[in-house]
Amino acid sequence: MRKVTDRPDLLVIDHLPWRAVFGVLAFLLAMLALGGLALARGGWAPGLGLILLGGGSALAALSTVAEHCRLALDRTAGEATLTRRNFRGRRLRRYPLARIARAGTQSKLDWMWKPRLHRLVIHLDKGPGLPFSESWQAGSEPAEMARAINDWLARTSGQHTPS
Hints:
Layout: E1 2-7, E2 10-15, H1 18-40, H2 44-65, E3 68-74, E4 79-86, E5 89-96, E6 100-109, E7 116-124, E8 130-131, H3 141-154
Antiparallel strand pairs: 1-2, 2-3, 3-4, 4-5, 6-7, 7-8
Helix pairs in contact: 1-2
């Protein structure tokens, strides 16, 4: 997650979890290579099992991990645009900038309750928070981006003053 643009009139935050995508792709290649090796040595059942089950599970994981999200807060246009692209397609949501109350984070415990996972959430003036991404991540990036959004919303500009 990173700030692409940070100007008084425009804030753009972009997120694509490259490490997770590359990790899943490495797992997929390993399953295909091991399955191909087993097939080459005459092991039809293990080879097909590795290719179908291992490769299939890697593709399923990739479909949930590979999500490109972009949030654009534009004072000039007076709107906030959230774009998500993944294997299911592209979703675009637009909100009047005046409806953006603040940004925050949601947290949950990971497997075996060890690290906490977080995600950035945009809070509108009414209704529940709008998650920036469907995926969760460890670390402080969601909190840092929430602070950046709140700081940007607090800044005043001659063009638009957020509520």
